[in-house]
Amino acid sequence: MLNRVRSAVAHLVSSGGTSSQRSKSPDLPNATSAPPAAQEIPKSSREKPGNEVGAPQKTAETTLSFSRPTFLQLSPGGLRRADDHAGRAVQSPPDTGRRLPWSTGYAEVINAGKSRHNEDQACCEVVYVESRRSRSGTGVSREPSHNQGFCFYYWGLFDGHAGGGAAEMASRLLHRHIREQLKDLVEILQDPLPPPLCLPSTLGTPGVSSSSQLVSPQSCWSPQKEVTHDSLVVGAIENAFQLMDEQMARERRGHQVEGGCCALVVLYLLGKMYVANAGDSRAIIVRNGEIIPMSREFTPETERQRLQLLGFLKPELLGSEFTHLEFPRRVQPKELGQRMLYRDQNMTGWAYKKIEVEDLRFPLVCGEGKKARVMATIGVTRGLGDHNLKVCSSTLPIKPFLSCFPEVRVYDLTQYEHCPDDVLVLGTDGLWDVTSDSEVAATVDRVLSSYEPNDPSRYTALAQALVLGARGIPRDRGWRLPNNKLGSGDDISVFVIPLGGPGSSYS
Amino acid sequence: MLNRVRSAVAHLVSSGGTSSQRSKSPDLPNATSAPPAAQEIPKSSREKPGNEVGAPQKTAETTLSFSRPTFLQLSPGGLRRADDHAGRAVQSPPDTGRRLPWSTGYAEVINAGKSRHNEDQACCEVVYVESRRSRSGTGVSREPSHNQGFCFYYWGLFDGHAGGGAAEMASRLLHRHIREQLKDLVEILQDPLPPPLCLPSTLGTPGVSSSSQLVSPQSCWSPQKEVTHDSLVVGAIENAFQLMDEQMARERRGHQVEGGCCALVVLYLLGKMYVANAGDSRAIIVRNGEIIPMSREFTPETERQRLQLLGFLKPELLGSEFTHLEFPRRVQPKELGQRMLYRDQNMTGWAYKKIEVEDLRFPLVCGEGKKARVMATIGVTRGLGDHNLKVCSSTLPIKPFLSCFPEVRVYDLTQYEHCPDDVLVLGTDGLWDVTSDSEVAATVDRVLSSYEPNDPSRYTALAQALVLGARGIPRDRGWRLPNNKLGSGDDISVFVIPLGGPGSSYS
Predict the structure, then answer these.
(1) What is the DSSP string of A338-373?
(2) Residue A197: its chain B contacts at CB < 8 A?
(3) Which chain A residues are Cβ-neighbours of B219 within 8 angstroms?
């Protein structure tokens, strides 16, 4: 029930990314360039300038075939406890170690047995972006000046399905793809002038950021469109998602990336938060008690019309097994000639149609809520990976219906004076399946008010409370919430990012 | 500038629907079944039961090749004044005649010369829907009982382009298509039980409304979806729009329906308002001073991603002339090899790409605001008609990119106790191009507060004030608003529908 992909394809369990295969393109982040496992000694999360490809690092070959986020600093014993479906101990970074940037809170818990390992992954980094221009010059500065680069803060939650490989790979590499996309924009984003419409062809040519690069407007018939700095960052994130997905397609066999993952990532860059979501994780801001949604979920229900339109325009993608029409339930052969409720790709309402032979095919989109499926297989319609995903007992590929593109929302941190109790909460669906936005807001209020405003551990305590509140306690043959309803048996991962004074409490 | 379709195709001027050609299908509303012109003596707006096809009525052949809504009750002299671009007299139904249902206010004014006639049309009707079941029985009752039928109230604004023919045809026939779609639903909509998933094949079989018609749920894998009564009405409206569009395609030559039209229609049915919009007209509710948007506009900008996706999936629709990529302005040959801002069908942000030869093609979507165009031709992406529309100096059809499907929003009138100052305002883009939602709300407050709450003429006065406020007065070689900005030179049409006590003031 909790699987996004039906059990027929869900038994593939990833064993993490320990292959030594290199990325083919030297410009792309390399799948083996970052330490995948928790056994590494934690290092500064600020990556070194110029380290975008990085030398392959020897990773410890252990008997453990899974990994948890590096920042959890788990010992081998801690890793075993994190992998224990019976105890379901909540994991957070240790109080004693280096805090996450901005004193970000984090907590996670493994599922109740639906998959062998925790298929969620997380990443929290400060990433330095060096301009291509400064690197292609005669000297690479060790102490980059203002115009040669900038940092972005980065948080990512990756919820895997049909194995943890895609989530693990994305958690190590997606921010590097974003960095690559931003390298061309370093000067442009720091220049108050509008972005130039046109750039010379050569990368690294001096003067890229100057408005003199603006090709003079043509177009009597159509004035040129003004493009904002924000929309360049959004475009960079969108293209980074696509490149990440393409890298998974290329390298999936070497890295055993058989499944896919949802991706919810946040960038803080030059005063703004960019929240990018592809999948069914969710982000909300709780500000002075008010809830501001920062994402929406992409599921067979919310994307029904996009999916149906694709099936209608490209019927070959449906094979002979599926119909692009939606029916309230599968049509039975005995109902031929009767009139049944349906809707097509153009409709939001329902109408009756006479049932014909083609309508006996399986509907492309079927089911409701958490049971909604595309091609009777997958319950989430955006994310990374899933390149091998086929319809059960068929060779029909599902990937053409999935989109790797996130929706990106922008929140300007400078437009409001945030207090220490204002937070951005990111959670995988394990949290949101059993917790409403307003319940999260109530927990934010309850937990944060019990800590001093300047206590940096309060955000971890809040993340733990949210995970515990969604997991429940073992009782009556299951994990139960205080109201005796079932808690989430899914993997649950939560980031709590304080908005009051970005970076001020970064240690 | 005001034309939705570039001047190359805008010179086609409709001469109204006076052809005697009959609809081919006896089940469909007939294009000649309603009086098209204002010369008719006004009759009761309540249509007779069973009159869905209607005998062709002889229409007065006059030298006037255009028509205005019947309810304006225009004399030949009045018709000439309504057609006068220089005077631009505001037209409303006469105070002395029969009021529109609910004391609805209406006002319109012709454009300042952009087209020969006023290409807006309007319709306001009370439509009786008789069940197919009651008619297919042995006796047709003259006094239909509760279950044999119901009435809906109907308001429609149709904003034509490239001629007034499509708007004129839609104003006469769209509500009849809606009636046809609702005929199958008469018993179902009046039955408190959920709609049956499946109906017997034979129309008019007794017992259709009974829940015993529910085929027992199958689907261990997927529980059957619950379909609401509302969504059946929405589906009926959606299909009616499609059938209206198909009828225009079939009959366009005989009726000289060369252009197209936006359609904004409202149904009041069984306690709820259904607001259906296909185009760039707009509906808002002003309730206790608060603005509730009841529609959104469909333009090349708001539908950019749908259009680009279609061009990407079906490149043959672009010919060799267009690219599905968007650029901030047209790319020039000398920019080959340079990198220019672009976005594709998946992106909301912008990024740079190296210009290749194919990028020199014209962008499928270009321009901003009122100048935005699909294929450099049309500025509205949903509506009825336009079956003949081609790219200027080309045989490439544009219709595949246009959608005839409305977005339908539902407003439950019973959920709030409305006062006499609460209104639903419908306007063509002539109103909204120069008037914001909040300016309309201010005018609602100003005008209605100057009339007694029970004065039925107050809504017409409000409609007139809105039209006058958007038209302005002739000054400094143009029509000017009080702030000296240009008023709208477009056709302007406005309905004001009072929400306080539906039907109570119907005379």
Answers:
(1) SEEEEB-TT-SS-EEEE--GGGGSEESEE--GGG-E
(2) 328-329, 340-341
(3) 329-330
